[in-house]
Structures are given as structure tokens and as C-alpha cells.
Recover the amino acids of this structure.
């Protein structure tokens, strides 16, 4: 069988949006590739731009899938300028290779390296976070995820208990467990995210330390009521509007007193209302992290 590869080089920030668009029509057959590879020792942020590819079997469905993707790209292009997609025909052997070589290790923060499962985790001093790609959100390329990883590596201590609210691929839960978290509870409202997180937990051999459930803040609060100590650290990388709602609904009850909450997914101009609301609801600001126009805040529960 032959395959058509459609690829687009975009900024890391856009990569997930393009991958998500591709995944509607080609679930599982997507690759996000660094166009420049950082050496393991380098500690700066990954790679810009990224090449996002979709692989479509060349058969009777090709034209309609291609058409839908082109339409999707056109719509996305109305919001943010996109380069023209590049089309390439691949033979079965090329496709198999190209699929694998497209996923390369990604160094993030000072401590982590994100890897696909078929690369052996010889990551130097870095802690491997193995993620099966093909899933749109949580490949580690998005600035909001990277800010969370940086905050986790600074604030998490070994033996602590963690909640990951909106776990996506499970990237943050796995990173926390790698740093020595004794127990991680991961929640997501999306059943697909729960399933992908489960697979990734298994790939990292962390079934004994990470539990994933479908649910949101209400479910966490219900669980915590039975265990009155509460987790030491909560991380939530969700939209600012959702974070605001959660803060008002008692997000601080999901963390123990003097515990840490890392909130990400906040654009620069959304920062003030989120901070003000947090400070009015038992949170104290520890620090603000920034990457491009994204902000993450580290808060302590008082
Ligand atoms: N934690 C991952 C994924 C972030 S994407 C990362 O940092 O890369 C945000 C995730 O939050 C999505 O998987 C989405 O399904 C989930 N989400 C959105 N609203 C939510 C809510 N109210 N409660 C729980 N999860 C939510």
C-alpha cells in the first residue's frame, strides 16, 4: 500500500492544533517531528518549528479525507497564518520508517526527556517520559505543558502526593512519578484522554503509582473528603476560563494547607483576573512562569 504524507512546519504553539485537526481524519497516523534536534545536554526549550505530518492510505477514501483536511487547514489559517502543506507519496517501507524516525526525543526543562516507546531510554541524566504519539494533546510540545513541567521539577519533592487535573496524555503525571511522587491521581473529562493516559502509564511501568479516572474537580473533592490530609501538589493545565470557575468552586480544597497548585493554560492578558480570583480564594502567589505569551502560576494554599 502507498501512503500520502501531508506535512506542515509550524511553531510549537500551533503544532497541537494542527495535529488535532489531522487526527479527526487520520487517528493514530500522525507525527510531530522536531526539525532541529537538541543534544541531550542542552537545557533550553525545544525546537522551533515543528513538522506535523498526517499519513493517509492511498485508496478510494483519499480524496475526501484530503479535502476535509484542506478545509480544516483553511479554517485554522483564518485564525493564524499557516504555511502551505507539503504532499509526498510514500511506499509501505518508507512509511514504516518515516513514521518512526519522525518521533525524536525532546528535552524539556532541566530534567525531562520525552520519548516515543521504540527509542531506548538512554537519556543521560534526564528522566524519561515515554509517550505513545498519535494522540493530539500532551505531546510536550505546547508551551503550557512545558511551563508545568518546569514548575513540577522545581516544586515537587520525592514522596509527595500529586493530583493532575486535565491529564490529557498523562505527560505531567508520568513526569511527577519520575521525580519520585509517591502517588498520583490523574483526572480528565475526556474518556479518550483517560484511555491514552492509561496506556502511557503502562508504557512507563507506573501502574502502581498513578491512578487515572474520568472526572473533574467535584470528583477530586469527593475523594479528598475521605482522606482529610489532601495532596501536596496539584497541577492543572486547562483554559483560563475553566481555571477561574474551578477556583471559585473551591480548587484550594483539592490541595493540603501550604501545598502547591500549578495552574497553566493562561494567556498573558488573562493572568490578572486569574491571579486576583486565586488570591481571594486562599491562594498566595509563589511565582509566575512565562513562555511566549503563555503564563503559568505557582500558588501556595494558605
Ligand atoms: N495535562 C496535559 C493536557 C492538557 S490539555 C498537558 O499539560 O499537556 C487539557 C486537558 O484538560 C484535556 O485533556 C481536556 O480534556 C481536559 N479538561 C478540560 N476541561 C476539564 C475539566 N473541567 N475537568 C477535567 N479535565 C478537563
Amino acid at each position: 500500500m502507498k501512503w500520502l504524507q501531508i506535512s506542515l512546519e509550524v511553531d510549537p504553539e500551533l503544532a497541537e492544533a494542527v495535529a488535532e485537526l489531522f487526527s479527526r481524519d487520520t487517528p493514530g497516523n500522525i507525527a510531530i517531528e522536531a526539525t532541529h534536534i537538541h543534544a541531550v545536554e542542552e537545557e533550553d526549550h525545544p525546537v522551533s518549528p515543528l513538522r506535523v505530518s498526517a499519513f493517509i492510505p492511498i485508496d478510494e477514501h483519499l480524496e475526501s479525507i484530503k479535502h476535509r483536511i484542506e478545509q480544516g487547514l483553511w479554517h485554522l489559517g483564518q485564525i493564524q497564518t499557516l504555511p502551505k502543506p507539503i504532499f509526498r507519496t510514500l511506499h509501505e517501507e518508507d512509511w514504516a520508517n518515516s513514521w518512526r524516525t519522525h518521533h525524536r526525543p525532546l528535552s524539556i526543562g532541566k530534567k525531562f526527556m520525552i520519548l516515543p516507546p521504540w527509542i531506548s531510554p538512554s537519556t543521560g541524566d534526564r528522566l524519561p517520559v515515554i509517550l505513545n504519539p498519535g494522540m493530539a494533546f500532551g505531546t510536550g510540545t505546547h508551551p503550557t505543558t512545558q511551563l508545568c513541567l518546569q514548575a513540577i521539577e522545581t516544586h515537587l519533592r520525592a514522596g509527595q502526593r500529586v493530583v493532575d487535573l486535565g491529564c490529557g496524555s498523562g505527560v505531567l503525571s508520568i513526569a511527577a512519578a519520575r521525580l519520585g511522587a509517591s502517588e498520583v491521581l490523574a483526572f480528565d473529562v475526556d474518556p479518550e484522554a483517560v484511555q491514552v493516559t492509561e496506556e502511557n502509564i503502562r508504557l512507563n511501568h507506573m501502574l502502581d503509582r498513578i491512578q487515572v479516572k474520568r472526572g473533574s474537580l467535584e470528583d477530586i473533592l469527593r475523594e479528598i473528603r475521605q482522606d482529610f490530609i489532601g495532596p501536596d501538589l496539584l497541577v492543572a493545565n486547562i483554559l483560563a476560563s475553566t481555571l477561574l470557575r474551578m477556583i471559585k468552586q473551591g480548587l484550594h480544597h483539592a490541595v493540603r494547607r501550604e501545598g502547591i497548585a500549578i495552574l497553566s493554560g493562561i494567556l498573558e492578558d488573562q493572568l490578572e483576573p486569574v491571579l486576583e480570583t486565586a488570591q481571594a480564594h486562599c491562594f498566595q502567589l509563589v511565582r509566575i512562569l512565562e513562555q511566549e505569551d503563555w503564563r503559568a502560576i505557582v500558588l501556595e494554599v494558605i
Remarks:
- The first strand starts at residue 2 and ends at 10.
